[in-house]
């Protein structure tokens, strides 16, 4: 109902000619939060106004002609059909306009390409359907997925009004945090298919391509929360892997880094203690909803022909070690979860799958065992 | 030899075969042209239904009707059906009907291949539709089919790839036929520079098709071997490169979009002079501009790939090369405007569509120019701004000129005038709704809405709703077109068309010197003289 009312309001505004500039949504490119994004915005506006000006002239001539050179106005057709001078003039004029546009565009390109003298590096890896961030200097590492509220609301027949969800589809569990006034280099790659990392306020997007590394840079002037989305079709949940970038004062950022490092220790401690089966199953339910349900479905029945069912699956009901191996290493379209889940989350989701979703295997696995396996994998990689 | 000649002599009274078999076995260019056009119209509605499924889901935020995977199948199939099933066949249909009549030839040069290329098209499209029913669903990786994503397709993948092979073979055969016809079967008086612009644009298009279709076929075959035969052309883990596919695809894909627009230019250049009652302005420059656009289309492909991480000089080169396309395109728009200038214009339905085409195509050209600027494309890329851009150059440009061409030539084909009042109603419904449909998509893209998403953040809600309303009005208005065409073919409440059909048209094209309706066989002997308005 609210939407319909808003629509009527918009249509009303348009008809009485006030325009929609007052409304709370944008119609134009955003200026953004960096020097680069301002440069891009300026370029966009120059191009737009040139096009408008050319359009006014060309369409003006055309409408004049349409009005005055009509048969019904008694106009007699003249029979001219060629004029080399005119052709040359209207070849040269667009060429000049293009050169005028190409100069600032080239300058902007050179600025965007300059990734020298960066002060810190964040590696971004695209996954189906989440983002992985690694702060190369600080050793901070985490995954960032769609926030739980949006995730609940986004399914067919969820019964949740998207308007009631704050930042619907543009919110994540773990935002990427950067300090302001710092030249940051981003490295981009992907684990499965091509994604594209886009925060409009930074003024650019970049493809993340499996097996290759792209780079770009930014320097944000103002603290703030900047939201974006994956821009390259990457499968069914392409619309559901947003990006939230929080730019902080340098001191606040230092504080955040400390917290992140403390969190790593807390997670290790949590992994080392003994967990009860019920604890694991309870925790596993939410991990399942956020990581597994989009393919294997909330009820574990999967999608015939594309995503296998987990309910009654021979792997799930079979040896627990084999199941852990499969989830760690991935298979086909299924990503490798070894680094994606911390030991507690990993152990709890395995336990949940084996004891829920119409499965009643009855066993469980402890986070500490997962932790051993994960560190074994890391050691292997370091050897290589 | 003599035996063959004698046998052929026995078949002098060529009439269409009786009954249904006429359409299966026909080698007559008019029959095949009709079949292409009817098929294109049917596919236009199938693709249109897919578009309406997309616009229904996007009517408001939240997922209402379909699963995301099916939504992606719909965007993919909508594009493939509209490009390969509707727009391209429609132009081949026009080519079949019009090229022989425009150049004074009795038929196409290779009539049996003509029949084969049509039925191969039908087979290809049916194979494509079959993927809707296989396990795993229809292809859902976008019509561009980028790996590695496309390799995750279920059982549909080989069907889709073979379907593209068939469609490609069909297009190449059609192109060879058109080239052979134009080069060999023109009336003796018709030198190349006297050919109607529609013929010129089609011969250039045909060369484009022959050059690009094998590249596309090769690229998708590499997908096939990557998936089933353990090659790794596009897999970095095996030494390949996913971006290689994008280079191959867009080497095909960029000229392909010109395949969709060049015949459009040709139809506009044919219609506007007739209703301006003036010769086309700058005939020679129109030919050169078309050829220039076709040439440039081969050297700009990577402007679709500004984000993949090309080196700076590569990006600058593709930016400059792309910007240059604006020059010949602008020349064409100026020439059409100059053709109207100081004419004695009337605005029958074909002319209405043509004027709308010039204006709306120019808007699509403007956004194209904006996107050629690589730094700004970093923002525009893969957003609804792009969706708005290419729909402006495909719907109110290519589709509008297909409509215009139908209204323009239908009286010649059927011998009956269409209902002018209904034609104008169809035009006004279409032109208003198409703008309600696509113009707001510019705003959505600029505001940050990515393309190919089934659900979106709530700040995009209003323009999406307006766009969807436009889509439904546009879609249902096209049923009126079907009614008008049906009425004209059947001759229900229609005036009989004169031979010339349009005032002074016989000065503009050979087809208007034939009787209406055009007899089953025309120009069995070539005409002695051809219109010379251009010189």
Please write out the topology:
The complex is a heterodimer of chains A (384) and B (535).
Chain A: H1 2-15, H2 35-68, H3 84-113, E1 120-127, E2 130-135, E3 140-144, H4 148-153, E4 176-179, E5 184-190, E6 195-199, E7 204-208, E8 214-218, E9 224-230, E10 243-248, H5 250-272, H6 277-291, H7 293-296, H8 314-317, H9 320-329, H10 343-355, H11 367-383
Parallel strand pairs in A: 1-5, 4-10
Antiparallel strand pairs in A: 1-2, 2-3, 5-8, 6-7, 6-9, 9-10
Chain B: H1 2-9, H2 21-25, H3 29-57, H4 68-103, H5 111-130, H6 156-184, H7 197-228, H8 242-276, H9 283-297, H10 312-324, H11 326-340, H12 349-372, H13 374-380, H14 384-414, H15 420-447, H16 461-490
* Number of E-state strands of chain A: 10
**Roughly what is the average pLDDT of chain A, rounded to an integer?**
87
Q: Runs of chain A with pLDDT <50, length 5+? A: 15-24
Strand order of the largest sheet of chain A: 3-2-1-5-8
- The end-to-end distance of chain B, rounded to whole angstroms, is 43 Å
Profile the largest sheet of chain A: 5 strands, mixed
Structural class of chain A: alpha+beta
Q: What structural class is derived from the secondary structure elements of chain B?
A: mainly alpha
Helix content of chain A: 40-55%
Give structural notes.
Chain A has 384 residues and is of the alpha+beta class. Chain A contains 11 helices and 10 strands. The longest helix of chain A is centred in the N-terminal third of the chain and has 34 residues, at 35-68. Chain A is elongated and about 90 Å long. Mean pLDDT of chain A is 87; it is low at 15-24. Chain B is mainly alpha-helical and 535 residues long. Chain B contains 16 helices and no strands. The longest helix of chain B is centred in the N-terminal third of the chain and has 36 residues, at 68-103. Chain B is globular. Chains A and B meet through helix 1, helix 2, helix 3, strand 7 and strand 9 of A and helix 4, helix 8, helix 9, helix 10 and helix 11 of B.
